Amino acid sequence: MKRNEYHVVPDGGGWKVEQGSTVVGTYDTKQQAVEAGRGVAHGNEPSQLVVHTADGKIETEYTYRDDPYPPAG
């Protein structure tokens, strides 16, 4: 089963949660975006939330249900 993947990324002066090219929500602070992203990812398991830094690098990841270990490949 494929996981739903969500990303918390900078958006001008704020932050947004997106799934692919779809914006799930926009927020004033990174903390608000992470909390909202965790909620939507947890509600749509299996899923993963990838949190980025202000310069776009990956900061952390949260995986909800069915994290394959060891990974394929």
Automatic annotation (TrEMBL):
Pfam families in alphabetical order: DUF2188
Lineage top rank: taxon: Bacteria
Protein name: DUF2188 domain-containing protein
